[in-house]
Amino acid sequence: MFNFKYIFYLIVLYSYSFCHAGSYDDFFTAIKHNDTHTVIGLLNRGFDANTLNPAGEHGLLLAIREPSLEVATVLINWPKTKVETRNRQDESPLMLAAINGLTEICQQLISKGADVNKPGWTPLHYAATHGHLAVMNLLLENYAYIDAVSPNGSTPLMMAASYGTPMAVKLLLEAGADPMLRNDLGLSAIDFAQRANRAESAEIISAFVRARQPKEKW
């Protein structure tokens, strides 16, 4: 004798799985194409904004990286989105927004509780690496630790000195960054600038150090 209740259960389960699989593909395709209409529709129908793709990446991280900024804004403002997710490199959405100079997205993330001072590499390290002054100022205004140390002991000033711009170096120094700190290899910000052939940045740091020390000690 057929168990109609069991058969009905299997049909419902199959239908749900099929629809969910379609929603899954639609969600990540919509992120790639900055399709807010589809993303909003899926979220309103109950799709989990924190679903990971097959590579283990969160939709918000993907939207910022693409960049699909309208979708990123939708996800940031969706109440159930976790803005403190991480990828396999321990990068947060705020870090990716910072390294790409996305000031408005950074502001939105911070307003939703994104960690300005996450352990390890920080958003300020990332913003300083590309010399994004507006993002750097925003992070500092929101109490980013200016001398944060990465896993190898490097500071945002060291990143600015090696990869960023002289203006980024100047901003950090004037905001209170310590140019005398050294990383795990014993390198200072001046060393970073010199090794990268950033003569202007090296001179800015040297001049700042000279100005702080009595002449007889220089």
From TrEMBL:
The keyword Repeat applies. Gene3D superfamilies: Ankyrin repeat-containing domain. It comes from the Bacteria. Keywords: ANK repeat, Repeat. ANK repeats lie at residues 89-117, 119-151, 152-184. Pfam families: Ank_2 (PF12796). This is Ankyrin. It comes from Albidiferax ferrireducens (strain ATCC BAA-621 / DSM 15236 / T118) (Rhodoferax ferrireducens).
